[in-house]
Amino acid sequence: MRFRFRKAAHVLERVGLAMAGAACGLFVGAYVGSTIPALTTQGFLLVMMLLGVVGFYLGIDTPQLPFDEAHSQIDAAELLSSAGTLCATLAAFASVAVIVLRLEPHSALTWLVFTAWIAGVAMQIVAGTKARMRK
Asked: Which one, of 58, 95, 51, lies nearest residue 80 by Cα?
């Protein structure tokens, strides 16, 4: 019985992380889409949100290396996960700041935010996939 509750709690946690990823993707998509006319579509917003869902669901809370292996090598999945989470959330934070403060930054910042988001969620997805493929 206790196992079921732990499993349910873990699933709820992961769904919450996925929803946070979707929200971050929505903010990044809204900012980038409002600045780059070619990306002002609902499809673009949906893709950004789906990337956030997958990245945050897979990339946060990755299984760790077994104890005996953890001391002998660097855990690439853990490093990618943490770096990806930092990049993605910094991009989301910058997007929210621009939207809320009604700033009009240089287009280079828009491309930097967009690149950081894509790189961040890509690192999370790769890290989560790699960690789950371990034996």
From this structure: 58
Say if residues 94 and 27 touch (Cβ distance below 8 Å). Answer: no
Overall pTM surpassing 0.85 (yes/no): yes
- DSSP secondary structure code for residue 71 in this structure: T
Count of alpha carbons within 13 Å of 78, Cβ hemisphere only?
8
Helical H segments across the chain, by residue range: 2-35, 42-59, 67-70, 76-101, 107-132
Q: Confirm if 28 and 113 have CB atoms less than 8 A apart.
A: yes
Q: Smallest Cα–Cα separation from 105: which of 24, 31, 39, 25? A: 31
**Closest of 119, 97, 95 to residue 35, by C-alpha:** 95
Tens digit of each residue's pLDDT, the chain (135 residues):
678 888 888 889 989 999 999 999 999 999 999 999 899 899 999 999 999 999 999 888 777 776 665 566 778 888 899 999 999 999 999 999 999 999 989 999 999 999 999 999 999 999 988 888 876
How far is Cα 111 from Cα 51, in angstroms, rounded to an integer? 17
